[in-house]
């Protein structure tokens, strides 16, 4: 990916994105032809740039299913960064990552089923890193999906000995799939966060 495009994604600068598109209308197409690549959506997902990520999703929905060179989709990356942010306090990055996951699912609910490295769906990955509630509360998930090792989310949580997640899964067991929250709820929450951030 071109460094100026990466910088635009890191900063969440939509104006810079369109300036690059004006300069080279194929700038996003050239990335789409590469099988394993960090897209601007991966970059925006890693930094919680929600508006930029949604603009990229609108322009190039295929980027949401692309794997980077490590085998991760933007959804996997957003979950990684959610987990890596300070779990003891509700940081802006943590809130943005949760909202970004929700926004991605609101555009394409099946993203939660896209397998990444080692056949891990975002739900498997969330179980592995201990943030499964983020997807269970927000996305359409298949609790019986298996990774390449034929493990379900329950198998992974047993192996990680996370009793809280096991209890959450057992309560959801009767519901194989859960519906994503309506986009209006997400937008209300996001607008509230933006308003709070603008006051600083």
From TrEMBL:
Gene3D superfamilies given in the database record: Ankyrin repeat-containing domain (1.25.40.20)
Taxonomy, superkingdom: Eukaryota
InterPro entries attached to this UniProt entry: Ankyrin_rpt, Ankyrin_rpt-contain_sf
Protein name: Uncharacterized protein
Taxonomic path: Eukaryota, Viridiplantae, Streptophyta, Embryophyta, Tracheophyta
Signal peptide range in chain numbering: none
Pfam families, per database record: Ank, Ank_2
Native organism: Carpinus fangiana
SUPFAM superfamilies: Ankyrin repeat
């Amino acid at each position: 990916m071109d460094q100026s495009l990466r910088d635009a994604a890191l900063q969440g600068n939509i104006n810079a994105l369109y300036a690059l598109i004006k300069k080279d209308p194929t700038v996003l197409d050239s990335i789409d032809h590469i099988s394993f690549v960090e897209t601007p959506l991966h970059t925006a997902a890693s930094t919680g740039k929600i508006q930029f990520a949604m603009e990229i999703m609108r322009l190039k929905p295929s980027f949401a299913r692309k794997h980077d060179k490590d085998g991760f989709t933007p959804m996997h990356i957003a979950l990684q960064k959610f987990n890596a942010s300070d779990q003891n306090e509700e940081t802006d990055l943590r809130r943005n990552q949760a909202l970004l996951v929700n926004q991605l699912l609101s555009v394409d609910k099946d993203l939660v089923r896209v397998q990444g490295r080692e056949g891990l769906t975002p739900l498997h990955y969330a179980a592995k890193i201990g943030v499964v509630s983020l997807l269970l509360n927000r996305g359409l998930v298949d609790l019986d999906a298996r990774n390449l090792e034929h493990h379900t989310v329950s198998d992974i949580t047993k192996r990680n000995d996370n009793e809280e997640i096991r209890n959450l899964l057992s309560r959801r067991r009767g519901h194989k799939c859960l519906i994503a929250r309506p986009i209006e709820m997400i937008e209300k929450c996001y607008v509230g966060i933006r308003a709070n951030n603008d006051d600083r």
